[in-house]
From TrEMBL:
Residues 462-541 form the RRM domain. One of its GO terms (molecular function) is zinc ion binding. One of its GO terms (cellular component) is ribonucleoprotein complex. InterPro entries: DUF4708 (IPR031643), Nucleotide-bd_a/b_plait_sf (IPR012677), RBD_domain_sf (IPR035979), RRM_dom (IPR000504), RRM_euk-type (IPR003954), U2AF_small (IPR009145), Znf_CCCH (IPR000571). A zinc finger (C3H1-type) spans 403-431, 543-570. Residues 616-635 have a biased composition (Basic and acidic residues). This is U2 small nuclear ribonucleoprotein auxiliary factor 35 kDa subunit-related protein 1. GO terms for biological process: mRNA splicing, via spliceosome. Residues 403-431, 543-570 form the C3H1-type domain. The keyword Ribonucleoprotein applies. It comes from Papilio xuthus. SUPFAM superfamilies: RNA-binding domain, RBD (SSF54928). Residues 576-648 are annotated as: Disordered. It comes from the Eukaryota.
Amino acid sequence: MQSYYSFHIENPGFDNIGHVIATADLNDKHDRSAPSHFHWKILKCRMLIFSNSSILACPDKKEIKQVHIIISTMNDDYDRLTSLFMKFSLIQQGAIRQVTPEMFLMCFRYTMTARIAPTWNTIGYNYLINNRNFLSTTGHQDGIKYQISFNDSSTVLELKPIKMILIRSDSDYKPGDCVRVLPSLSKAIIQDFCKSLPESGSFKSYQDLRRHWKNIHGYRIPEEEGSYYMVRFWRGEPLTYPKLCLTQNFPIITPLPKSAEGPLQLNISFECSDPQEILTPEECKCWLENQEAMYILEMERIEISNKEENDKWEMAEKITIEKWRKLQEKNEQLRLKHLQEIAKRKLEWEMEKKRREEEAERLKEIEEENKRKQTIFMEKLEQFLKGDSEDPPEELLISRESRPNTNLCPFFLKTACCRFGDECSRNHQYPGISNVLLATNFYSHFGLENSNFNEYDTDLMLEYDDKDTYKHFEEFFNDVLPEFEKYGKIVQLKVCNNYEKHLRGNTYVEFRDLRSAVAAYQGLHSRWYGGRQLSLQFCKIKSWDNAICGLHPQRRCPKGRGCNYLHVFRNPKDLFSGYNGHHNRQRRTPPRSWRWSESPERDPSPKRRRSRSRNSRHDNEDRSSRHHNEKDRDTPRKRKSRSDTNDR
């Protein structure tokens, strides 16, 4: 009958202990026995345990550099812990925390197993073997199975004496064999065999490997060097293990009967007496027979368990191989797809490169052709301007239209200007060249630019009347006329004094021949005058009579400053006044007949009222007429002719 030993350890008051988390400095120079960051953290934890007997500690299972420490808060343990932190290059994370039962059990288990090694060495999760040289010992070895539990008042430690046999293989393992790795007894697969330590491994010598197992696990590896194996776990990179730390299967565990159990002392060595020293020969013989029978049963159970585990392993291996095959097929498809994408992009890039080269070549040819045409055009233009050629270059005869296939704008057709510009809903025809040059907004004066006095002070225009504006215009006229006459005979020159922006200050210059107009455009376009850049364009004025408002000289234009026909200055000395718009018609009244006496004078007030009502009616008609209706211009002329008839 199997029994166990139970030890109750009184729990310390959780109010008197604290939980501290420290992190190892990974940049610190590692010891050769702890090559990885994980081993470096374990080494720091064990150094704390062996430096202070009142400390419970354990490494964190997930965080790569954290160590959990439990200390007493009633004395100077925290000050000593702080000095150990400085000595071992540890950094405290946060303040002292409250200790939980789970954290206390974890630190207690790890500290206990670390302190009793190497007399008691850890095998698996809850087994201890009582042999310093258990790795090189064959046959039965003494051990215990322990279990730690926790209640409100105490920590319970249950110990069961056992006999343990480590199953080893006399022959070498082959790649693909399944083994268990000490001290955790985790399953792994043999990947390769090595007679000596690999040069690319973490350990440079066998002494470094022995120090690693002693410092990290508490094992004492024999001084004689053996063979090594590269093993791979389910996850992670392959690791190098000595053959002594590999077992073929789970160890054979045989519980000791109660009669065979000896006194078990819970001290630092956890010593267990030999049962043969306290039994009689008959009891010892009976015990050995029972042990043999139990060993046979245990071997049968182990074989069954091994077969089940092997079947599970083979099934898992098949599933893993199938997943691996599918993964390889998927990776191969992705690789082929990636290669196709690369080839496609390369082809597209080559086609794009070829297209760009062709486009650059085409643009270069176009540029060269344009340069050649420009050279020919300039030669023809020079010949035309010098008089060597009668006809201008063909390129200058091409006209431009703003809205083809639409009705012509009547105002642009007459004045070459429109208040809507190219946004007008009707078509504007711009000639390539013509005898008439238009300098838009060329003439500028304060009296014209600030004519809309509603935007400024109402008294502002009192300082500038028409005489001041006209005096300034005479200076402008005498300054501009000689410059234009340098290029040829001028037939007409008109300067607008309209208030509308599209007509304000426009200067029209008509030359006698086309050659003079082209020469003037070439010489004066983009030049500067009075701080403003001159902008010239060719335009067509079919009739100055239709372009110039006929009622403006008599100050009878009903549109006033909003008129869309040309209101022009009277040129000094009546220069270029050879059109009928400026000459007022003389009222001719037939002489009174001597046969008739003088008629009594009539009261002019009714006629004046009738004339005012007639004028107001015409004003209303003008306001309601559309912008592009030519009747707005014809109505004043008809009214003028009607009044002339009445006068007659």
